[in-house]
Amino acid sequence: MICDELQGELDALQRDGLKRIRRTLELPCGPLARVDGRSLISFCSNDYLGLANDPALVAAACAGARNWGVGSGASHLVSGHLGPHAVLEEQLATFTGFDRCLLFSTGYMANLGIVPALVGRGDAVFADRLNHASLIDAVQLSRADSQRYPHADLAALERLLAASTARRRLILTDAVFSMDGDLAPLPGLLMLAERYDAWLVVDDAHGFGVLGAQGRGSISHFGLPANPRLICMGTLGKAAGAAGAFVAANATVIEWLAQRARSYVFTTAGSPLIACALATSLELIAAGDARRAHLRQLVAQLRDGLADTRWRLLASPTAIQPVIVGDNHATVRLAAALYERGLWVPAIRPPTVPNGTARLRVSLSAAHGEAQVAELVSALRELACA
Prior knowledge:
By secondary structure, the protein is of the alpha/beta class. The protein has helices spanning about 5-15, 55-70, 75-80, 85-95, 105-120, 135-140, 155-165, 185-195, 220, 250-260, 260-265, 270-285, 290-305, 330-340, 370-385; strands at about 30-35, 40, 100-105, 125-130, 145-150, 170-175, 200-205, 230-235, 245-250, 310-315, 320-325, 345, 345-350, 360-365.
């Protein structure tokens, strides 16, 4: 049968502890979840500021639906660029400090649009080895020469740049690495981009809204000045609590992407009600210092609580707190033991992370309370002794 080979490969995933399970939630996104009638504390989502079910965003979305309907009806360049889209792009440009912004349907689509629009055959992309899958796929689509440097290794990157004879060069990196929680050395990367006449494309999916002054993101966190070489992608479905993504850059780059980024040109524009909700989200992010301070306190609470156990946490200052286990099956068992205690923490395994580094990925949110984090710490301490 035509599906027998696929079934065999699915069986192999199950045997190797790599098969993923999709669960259906019976409550809105938040720190409390219900799955199959079971109540859980969730440490799974990227809703870092707790905005996904915020009443102000819900009200803005409802008002947006009444005023603008549900669908946009077409791509941005045909007739789908509605008033709320234009307003949001202007607000994002002002908030991030760039000349212009361009909205995309998802962060994945934004990355697939940026790289192939800027480089192609005869060009070179220099990518961090731990970049997100969307960046890896974007490089493959571009057909540019792909050169991967060891994670955050500026010296290795400089050697590659110095040896390159490519027509155009593009440095590509996550800002906050989604499975490790650490930050890219953005000041050093920008310095190399200037020295070797390259673009620096930064995926700030997990930094926007959380890091920097008023949550302006990783570029603000490092105090980097405006620079025509710098291109930032930020997602709007994580800390911003809704959906979509944006690319921020100088006006010339944004206009080029609007003309040549295929995942922008050839897809229907996002819902206008989401753009209305995001306008409110930006206001809450800008006024969200208390949320960010609470989130930092929860990070410290978790790390301090597990410091003297056998669990090894990576050196992450962000809301992403990976607990390295190593073996795939052991990681799945640990996640299952927590689940039985009413704590939902995802088991992350290859190919999402390198072989031998399977882990729990604890995602903290400003919506979590100290008592909920204390419950997770207590359970992990107990399981550390099992």
